Amino acid sequence: MKTHVTTLTERGQISIPADFRAGLGLHPGQKLLWTEDGDRALRLTVCEPPRRRSAADMLGYARTFRETRSTAEWMKELREGEEDDA
Which domains does the chain show, CATH number per domain? Predict the structure, then answer.
């Protein structure tokens, strides 16, 4: 079992040793859950990183704000506008 000693700063911060960060796949901003586990012991659990959103996800979300129509319906509406202009 690997062990490391770190120092608690005046502001209550600690550093996680680099080999532990690499082994756990930790990155800046990652959420960590601290749980009291007995007398003077803590358990550290790595929370799942938030899922990255893609452009397709955002389009799916935007769809909730508008009524969806088929391409044929859009084209019919556009063509009706052309007839009115003629």
Answer: 1-86 (2.10.260)
